[in-house]
Amino acid sequence: MRRIGAIEFPAGVMIGGYWLDETELEAMKDSARDSSLVRTFLRALEMKVDE
Question: What is the largest CA-CA distance in the chain?
Fold first, then answer.
C-alpha cells in the first residue's frame, strides 16, 4: 500500500448507498463524539419500533 493516508484521511465514504464527502463525514464524526442520553434513548426506541 503506497497511499495509506487515503485510509486514515478519506476524502469521503459510501454509507448505505449515500456518498458522504469529507465535510459531511467530519460532521457525522463530531455528532458521534457529542453523546446525549436523550438522543441515545430516542434512537434505541426507533430501532425497537422498526423491528
Answer: 46
